[in-house]
UniProtKB/TrEMBL annotation:
Name of the protein described by the UniProt record: Reticulocalbin 3
Domain EF-hand residue range list: 67-102, 103-138, 152-187, 189-224
Main location: endoplasmic reticulum
Matches recorded under SUPFAM superfamilies: EF-hand (SSF47473)
Stretch forming the signal peptide: 1-19
Family to which this protein belongs: Belongs to the CREC family.
Species this chain originates from: Nothobranchius furzeri
Domain of life: Eukaryota
Length: 317
């Protein structure tokens, strides 16, 4: 029995609670595309990692310039999904988003065979349910100490699966199963993320979050323990900012504004940046020729690494 999706959020939240301030554990921020500063005057490392993904960028750094350009040309063909010979903003934006989600897709692929029992490259709800809960289903969780919790987990998984299953056929493609396991990464799953968050925090089950529930999700004092200063700060955040309509509660819309902030779309900005820097005829789209003429902005090689090493040594001198 796997219990991957159901237990994963609980494990993640438990880990995150120790890694970051408690008041941040519910917020889903969009990660930047690279750990490097975006400073093209120094090097293109940020652009390389944004365009290729961090691990693939390292691979290109070991190639000769000729090999890098050859591989880049093949990548351009993949990005040009409508095969019109041009890379538009939408195509480049989609590619960069895809590369940044690659670690998630690799995680899904790693567990895919655990669920795809009939090996048809799809996962039905029945396959997932039987793999995850099969041992208990016939017994209605009677042997489980907290069977109501498991029943709730099953119902929650089914609701999330049906939402991820966009065509409603009861079968998840890889994309849909990725949305099921990582709903915070998909716009059409945001209502589920909000609903599950409300259910987690809303102890009196009135469909909204009051101040006591909001703070209780972050801090439960031990006997004699004084309240940390940040709790007062969070109470102020709740009343002055999160509770937009000032009714003393967070409704689902206010919860969405809290946990799914309108972060900067880094992939969108990077797509615009690469097109702006590469589009020599200023038609707001780029060709393979234009990309290859500026290949070292998109990908690295042994030569670019050598150049960076020389720059670093010069700076040290």
């Amino acid at each position: 029995m796997v219990l991957l999706s159901s237990l994963l959020p609980l494990c993640v939240l438990a880990a995150v609670a120790f890694a970051v301030p408690a008041q941040e554990k519910r917020v889903h921020h969009q990660a930047d595309l690279s750990d490097h500063a975006h400073d093209d005057s120094h090097n293109y490392q940020y652009d390389h990692e944004a365009f290729l993904g961090k691990e693939e960028a390292k691979t290109f750094d070991q190639l000769s310039p000729e090999e890098s350009k050859e591989r880049l040309a093949k990548i351009v063909d993949r990005i040009d999904t409508d095969k019109d010979g041009y890379i538009g903003h939408a195509e480049l934006h989609h590619w960069i988003r895809h590369r940044q989600r690659r670690y998630i897709e690799e995680n899904v692929n790693k567990h895919w065979k655990d669920y795809d029992k009939n090996q048809d490259d799809k996962i039905s709800w029945e396959e997932y349910k039987n793999t995850t809960y099969g041992f208990y289903l016939g017994e209605e969780f009677d042997d489980v100490e907290d069977k109501n919790t498991y029943k709730a987990m099953l119902a929650r998984d089914e609701r999330r699966f049906k939402t991820a299953d966009r065509d409603g056929d009861g079968i998840a493609t890889r994309e849909e199963f990725t949305a099921f396991l990582h709903p915070e990464e998909f716009d059409y799953m945001k209502d589920v993320v909000v609903q599950e968050t409300v259910e987690d925090i809303d102890k009196d089950k009135d469909g909204k979050i009051n101040l006591e529930e909001y703070i209780g999700d972050m801090f439960t004092p031990e006997d004699g323990e004084s309240e940390p200063d940040w709790v007062q700060t969070e109470k102020k955040q709740f009343s002055e900012f999160r509770d937009v309509n000032k009714n003393g509660f967070l409704d689902p819309e206010e919860v969405a504004q809290w946990i799914l902030p309108g972060d900067v779309d880094h992939a969108d900005n990077e797509a615009k940046h690469l097109i702006h820097e590469t589009d020599t005829d200023k038609d707001e789209k780029i060709t393979k020729k234009e990309i290859l003429a500026n290949w070292n902005m998109f990908v690295g090689s042994q030569a670019t690494n050598y150049g960076e090493d020389l720059t670093k040594k010069h700076d040290e001198l």
